[in-house]
Amino acid sequence: MPSDVVRFGNGLELDRRAYELRRSGRPLKLERIPMELLLLLVERKGQLVTREEIIEKVWGKDLFFDTDNSINAAIRKIRQVLRMTRKSHSSSRQSPERDTDLSRLQSRCSHALKAIRGH
After folding, report:
1. Domain spans of the chain, in order of start
2. Class (C level, CATH) for 5-117
3. Consecutive H or E run containing 72
4. C-alpha to C-alpha distance for 19 and 25, rounded to whole angstroms
5. Which candidate, 21, 8, 2, 1, places its Cα nearest to that of 80?
6. What is the pLDDT of residues 81-109, one digit of tens each?
């Protein structure tokens, strides 16, 4: 069974059980859809996740609306939270290694999200 808390470095952690993304122990605001998408990406780390898999996991199988825009919006919100985390950390810089860890996480997330979007 995977750990309930996934740590990304730089004080960033995703608590699956609490359904919460935190930085240095403080909760970050992330709506349900982006959180579900982030949880799916973490669960499937290193694997390609298709839009169909996202739709099934986040909304269910029987869906009749434009999910592309919803997925894109969720991706933007995840990126915003990661950027805000990085900016707030940069103002109180503790170590270059932590910046590198967050950059790697953002890069991995960005590559995974690009693969999902088909770009």
Report:
1. 5-117
2. mainly alpha
3. helix 67-91
4. 14
5. 21
6. 887 755 555 544 444 444 455 556 656 66
